[in-house]
Recover the amino acids of this structure.
């Protein structure tokens, strides 16, 4: 399966390994990676500006069982789910093997630093060339200082973990200043997991496509998103070829 669209948002039909290979293919410009999930796509259904924002990516990964269900429902099934954090972890392992420098941006005070230390315990040869937190003024002098710091660190890979749509908007708005970076990926709450502040779903949950349920158990405030998930799947048009009308 190639590229499909759900509510007008492009989604690449790929696997984790193919996504890593594509992201690291030299093209002369950054590979911008976004990871739409069901909640993000439901927001895009209601807001065309968010849809257009997500479509500025170079690589759009299907993050979540809901995206795969929607793709199947509309008759354009995807090869596999490619979670953003799995993409990030695989890219980190590849960066270690190839000697690529990684920069971590996002999280509250100390989260990116802690994530860097924990990642380097697992990947001793990994070069994390810089970190900074996510609570900075993204308009004005402070933003200029953050970008200057990132550029001075000369990363090959930049993970931006500010949450949707802040991270995607920041990447798009500042892309012209980050042209020397090979991969720029918006990875939401990955730093919280890598730092140990949050725990990933056990294999039992993830194997059944129920990571969303695990997140809600760990963070009950997320239960407020259930109506949006239901609305997302309900509004996806069903492929008429899969459900032909009954003959009279």
């Amino acid at each position: 399966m190639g590229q499909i669209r759900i509510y007008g948002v492009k989604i690449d039909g790929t696997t984790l390994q193919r996504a890593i290979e594509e992201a690291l293919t030299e093209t002369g410009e950054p590979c911008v990676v976004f990871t739409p999930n069901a909640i993000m796509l439901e927001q895009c259904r209601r807001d065309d500006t968010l849809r257009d924002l997500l479509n500025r990516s170079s690589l759009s990964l299907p993050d979540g069982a809901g995206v795969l269900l929607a793709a199947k429902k509309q008759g354009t099934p995807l090869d596999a789910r490619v979670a953003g954090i799995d993409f990030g972890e695989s890219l980190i392992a590849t960066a270690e093997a190839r000697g690529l420098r990684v920069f971590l941006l996002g999280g509250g005070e100390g989260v990116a630093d802690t994530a860097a230390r924990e990642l380097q315990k697992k990947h001793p040869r990994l070069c994390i060339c810089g970190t900074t937190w996510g609570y900075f003024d993204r308009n004005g002098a402070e933003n200029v200082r953050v970008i200057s710091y990132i550029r001075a660190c000369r990363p090959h890979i930049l993970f931006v973990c500010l949450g949707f749509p802040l991270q995607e908007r920041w990447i798009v708005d500042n892309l012209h200043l980050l042209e020397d970076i090979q991969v720029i990926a918006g990875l939401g709450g990955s730093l919280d997991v890598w730092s140990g502040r949050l725990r990933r779903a056990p294999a039992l949950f993830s194997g059944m496509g129920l990571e969303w349920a695990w997140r809600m158990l760990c963070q009950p405030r997320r239960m407020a998103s259930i109506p949006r998930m239901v609305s997302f799947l309900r509004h996806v048009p069903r492929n008429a070829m899969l459900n032909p009308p009954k003959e009279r």
User: Anything to note?
Assistant: Residues 240-248 have pLDDT under 50 and may be disordered. The longest helix spans residues 84-98. The first strand starts at residue 3 and ends at 6.
